[in-house]
Amino acid sequence: MQILIPFAALLALPATQAIVLPDGTGRLPALGWNSWNAYYCDIDEAKILTAAHAIIDLGLKDAGYEYVNIDDCWSIKDSRDNVTNQIIPDPLKFPTGIKGIADEIHDLGLKVGIYGSAGTKTCGGFPAQIGNEYLDAATFAAWEIDYLKYDNCYVPDNWTDIYSACVPDQWQTYGPYINGTCPSASSGQDEISAPPGYDWSTSLSAIRYGIMSDALLAQNRTILYSLCNWGHAAVQTWGGSTGSSWRITGDITPWWARVAEILNEGSFLSNYANFWGHNDLDMLHIGNGNLTLAESRSHFAFWAAMKSPIIIGTDLLKLDSEKVAILKNKALLAFHQDDKFGKPAEPYKWGVNPNWTFNATHPAEYWSGASKAGTLVLAMNTLEKKAWREIKFSEVPQLKKLGASKDSFEVRDIWSGKYLGCVRGSIGRWVGSHDTVGFVVGKKCRG
Ligand SMILES: *[C@@H]1O[C@H](CO)[C@@H](O)[C@H](O)[C@H]1NC(C)=O
Ligand SMILES: *[C@@H]1O[C@H](CO)[C@@H](O)[C@H](O)[C@H]1NC(C)=O
Ligand SMILES: *[C@@H]1O[C@H](CO)[C@@H](O)[C@H](O)[C@H]1NC(C)=O
Ligand SMILES: *[C@@H]1O[C@H](CO)[C@@H](O)[C@H](O)[C@H]1NC(C)=O
Ligand SMILES: *[C@@H]1O[C@H](CO)[C@@H](O)[C@H](O)[C@H]1NC(C)=O
Ligand SMILES: *[C@@H]1O[C@H](CO)[C@@H](O)[C@H](O)[C@H]1NC(C)=O
Ligand SMILES: *[C@@H]1O[C@H](CO)[C@@H](O)[C@H](O)[C@H]1NC(C)=O
């Protein structure tokens, strides 16, 4: 018997203190590259350094990308150092150690990330951190690591949460969501629901992730802490007092259905994100699987609009120039990295479905968000064929306030970068299947 907590109950934001790091680290969502979606376990120094050089050569560093993150499978698998108990980098994959490659990456003016797990082993079965958090954090600091992605595999029984939160990812198990709300009790499920108003920051998951947070903060080094507990234990309610970003779902896969599914889940969580704390929609798959150019545009546009960390996950040497251009899109990166406006964009109209419908294949299509450059507006086509999408200024909350019904505004197209002049009332386009159009609606025009 299970009674899942209603989504609305999660909207009560606890008054927790955000993690504020020196030099603005983690204030804005991270930009970088990670080895997993490109190479999975098959990594070595050459591949990581090739990516680091490509970040520079392709102009991605100039566009703001800075982290080069080594994911799972970097260490010796079956043991730690029998004297110091430290994790040992695999000498075949990383002949100069993690310190050696970190030095090379730093010499390029980039930062370096490493991967661990809040369990007995990493997801790939390598030594992980539980019980050794302070030792490993000190080792990472000694290697001059700048970023830790902290996964959720091999959690010991005595660290398993008593209650299970409603995880939107598992909607297929639990039944359809209504208005972003978990389905009500149904019989035959074996997990125990949390009592109404349960404070998930007291859960074993929050404590488990909190130990590594404390361990990193105890180091004489700024290490961005990226929580990867797959959206469990209502992490959005405590992630911001534990780290700089938190994954809201299980892993992304390189096809549209999964991108749309994650996009839908993220659309209900914008209240939790602001400066210093970000919903992580998972690493990009642009360049992988069967994502089309249109789907790649939507993937990037919404990861930027929702202010998720943007961590590229492909072999950059194989990426075609059109997709590189997507990753360098000026208007979207400016929105993502805006230092005055921390809130992500939000849907103002769902489109295909009624407002507030939780739907994995047809998420919200019409979005807006405030920025220094003006109001970012996006319109997506979730259908399988071309369709007309019209952004009516009177429906956009930020423009309504400015008197959208009578005035015209300076408009720029986010993809072409072209200034479209003064536009009054609305802007409409034919939009290809799974594609997204977007505009920055700036100042009111005179006269
Ligand atoms: C400790 O590890 C070293 C190699 O790293 C090995 O030569 C030595 O035999 C090990 N000692 C024990 C007690 O396992
Ligand atoms: C689980 O067991 C380990 C090993 O005995 C112990 O260190 C840890 O504190 C326990 N965790 C909890 C939540 O009690
Ligand atoms: C859905 O939830 C939102 C947010 O709580 C609320 O504003 C809206 O009125 C709800 N819509 C319906 C149809 O219940
Ligand atoms: C902390 O690190 C800085 C910069 O590397 C160094 O100058 C300083 O001495 C360190 N402080 C301590 C207490 O180790
Ligand atoms: C893309 O790949 C996925 C997984 O193999 C598949 O389910 C989907 O149908 C493919 N989509 C297209 C458009 O080929
Ligand atoms: C959804 O919201 C938009 C913008 O406020 C509004 O124009 C539209 O009528 C709403 N649709 C529904 C079905 O409530
Ligand atoms: C999602 O929305 C589409 C379009 O309205 C609809 O056909 C589909 O049945 C919905 N899916 C679910 C699981 O409700």
TrEMBL record:
Top-rank taxon, per record: Eukaryota
What PANTHER family has UniProt attached to this entry? ALPHA-GALACTOSIDASE B-RELATED, ALPHA-GALACTOSIDASE/ALPHA-N-ACETYLGALACTOSAMINIDASE
What sequence ranges are listed for the domain Alpha galactosidase C-terminal? 362-439
Please give the name of this protein: Alpha-galactosidase
Signal peptide extent = 1-18
Q: Does the keyword Nucleotide-binding apply?
A: no
Entry's family note: Belongs to the glycosyl hydrolase 27 family.
| A GO-annotated cellular component | extracellular region
Q: What class of enzyme is it?
A: hydrolase
Q: Main role?
A: Hydrolyzes a variety of simple alpha-D-galactoside as well as more complex molecules such as oligosaccharides and polysaccharides.
State the Gene Ontology BP annotations.
carbohydrate metabolic process
Annotated localization: Secreted
Q: Is Glycoprotein tagged as a keyword?
A: yes
Molecular function via GO: alpha-galactosidase activity
